[in-house]
Amino acid sequence: MTTEERKFTISVFTENKVGLLNRITGVFTRRHVSIDSLTVSESEVIGIFRFTITCKTNRDQVTKIVKQLEKLIEVVKSSFYEEDEIIQQEVALYKVPTRELTNSDRIEKIVRKHNARILFVGPEILVIEKTGHKEETQNLFNDLDPFGVLEFVRSGRIAINKTHENLHTHLDELEKSYKPLIQKAINHGKN
User: Fold this and answer.
1) What are the pLDDT digits (tens) for 12-42?
2) What is the DSSP letter of 72?
3) pLDDT band (50, 70, 90) for residue 44
4) How many other C-beta atoms can be found within 10 angstroms of the C-beta atom of residue 170?
5) How far apart are CA 167 and CA 147, in angstroms?
6) Average pLDDT value for residue range 88-99
7) Which of 53, 39, 49, 51 is closest to 16 using CA atoms?
8) What does the alpha-carbon distance between residue 100 and residue 134 come to, in Å, rounded to a whole number?
């Protein structure tokens, strides 16, 4: 049994059904595991959505969570990954007063230093975007903080695994495994 806690990223492919988010988070609640971030988006397959969830727990616990998630009727596939098995990013937006941009070039230098970009410049505020790992987006926040960050928002993690495995492969395997059962049911109905 592995009890060492570390960060895991869980990918859950699902149908889009009302109440599913509640059922998914309920699995974590029953196991007393906090969700650090949760992102939901469409996947590469029409009608299938991807939940990307990060949590800090041990390997045994995350294995049980993934197995429980797979039992939910709307879940097509669920997997978990360690940090070195994925490519991941987050997006952060920072709102700062425009006067800081017009009074000196310090904001512009910070934006360049962090490979960020200015998305919007208005009379009172400017909005900066940074894509990267959580530490990178936090470092930009730390550098902008002395200028008066008015708002800051960071997305949850988005991630893909480093293997060739994909949802289409899994769906093809499911179809192959169910074909004999469907044919058997059809034949049974004819008798």
Assistant:
1) 999 999 999 999 999 999 999 999 999 999 9
2) S
3) confident
4) 15
5) 45
6) 95
7) 49
8) 25
Helix (H) or strand (E) holding 131: strand 125-132
Cα 81 to chain centroid distance, Å, stands at 12
Give the pLDDT score at 134: 93
CB-neighbour burial class of residue 41 (10 A; exposed 0-12, middle 13-18, buried 19+):
exposed
Taken in order 77, 34, 2, 30, the sign of the CA dihedral is negative
The C-alpha atoms of residue 171 and residue 175 are separated, in whole angstroms, by 6
Mean predicted confidence (pLDDT) in 1-21 = 89
Q: Are 65 and 31 in contact (CB under 8 A)?
A: yes
The answer to whether the beta carbons of residues 40 and 50 sit under 8 Å apart is yes
Contact present, 128 and 144 (Cβ < 8 Å) = yes
Stated pTM of the model: 0.80
Confidence of residue 68 (pLDDT cuts 50, 70, 90): very high
Token readout for 155 is 């997305």
Residue 184 above 80 pLDDT? no
Which residue type is seen at 8?
Answer: F
Residue 128 · residue 110 · CB < 8 Å = no
Q: Which amino acid is at 58?
A: N
